[in-house]
């Protein structure tokens, strides 16, 4: 089994997937951290309220954050189950990489307001995750 720092490529993909919601939050807050609250800047006292009041691409980035959190447990479980089942590591690693890449594309499409393409990519990521679970 090829590993880096004791983790397989698939486990590293779990680490990356766990960071995707944070990336989405950063996108939603982009350019507003230095702006005063009075002028509509990011409110660290009420961050969820502030994010909830956003519109346009900021709101979509926040929604992508929520969806990234929602997708994470299934992905983690699929990776762990594939490892525990002794699945061929190359396949597990490849499917995990494909899942993460699809999720990155999903986030970009979400922020860019490409709803139909985003839904297609979401479905492909789900199929990839199911494949990973049963590899």
Description:
With 135 residues, this protein is mainly alpha-helical. It has one domain (9-29, 57-133). Helix content is 73%, strand content 0%. It contains five helices and no strands. It has helices at residues 9-29, 47-52, 56-84, 89-111, 115-133. α1 (9-29) packs antiparallel against α3 (56-84) and α1 runs parallel beside α4. The two termini are 16 Å apart. The relative contact order is 0.16.
Layout: helices, strands, pairs:
Layout: H1 9-29, H2 47-52, H3 56-84, H4 89-111, H5 115-133
Helix pairs in contact: 1-3, 1-4, 3-4, 3-5, 4-5
E-strand count:
0
How large is the radius of gyration? Answer: 17 Å
Q: Could you describe the largest sheet, including whether it forms a barrel?
A: none
Sheet/helix structural class = mainly alpha
Number of helices: 5
- The ordered string of helix (H) and strand (E) elements is HHHHH
Strand portion: under 5%
Based on CA inertia axes, which overall geometry fits? Answer: elongated
Low-pLDDT runs: none
Mean pLDDT: 94
What is the helical fraction, as a range of percent?
over 70%
What oligomeric assembly is this protein in? single chain
* First-last Cα distance: 16 Å
Count of distinct structural domains: 1
């Amino acid at each position: 089994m090829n590993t880096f720092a004791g983790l397989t490529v698939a486990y590293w993909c779990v680490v990356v997937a766990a960071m995707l919601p944070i990336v989405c939050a950063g996108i939603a807050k982009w350019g507003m951290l230095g702006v005063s609250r009075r002028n509509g800047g990011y409110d660290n006292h009420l961050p969820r309220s502030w994010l909830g009041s956003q519109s346009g691409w900021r709101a979509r980035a926040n929604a992508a954050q929520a969806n990234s959190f929602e997708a994470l447990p299934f992905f983690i479980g699929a990776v762990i189950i594939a490892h525990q089942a002794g699945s061929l590591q190359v396949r597990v690693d490849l499917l995990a990489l494909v899942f993460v890449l699809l999720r990155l594309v999903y986030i970009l499409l979400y922020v860019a307001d490409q709803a139909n393409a985003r839904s297609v990519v979401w479905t492909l990521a789900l199929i990839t995750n199911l494949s990973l679970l049963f590899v």
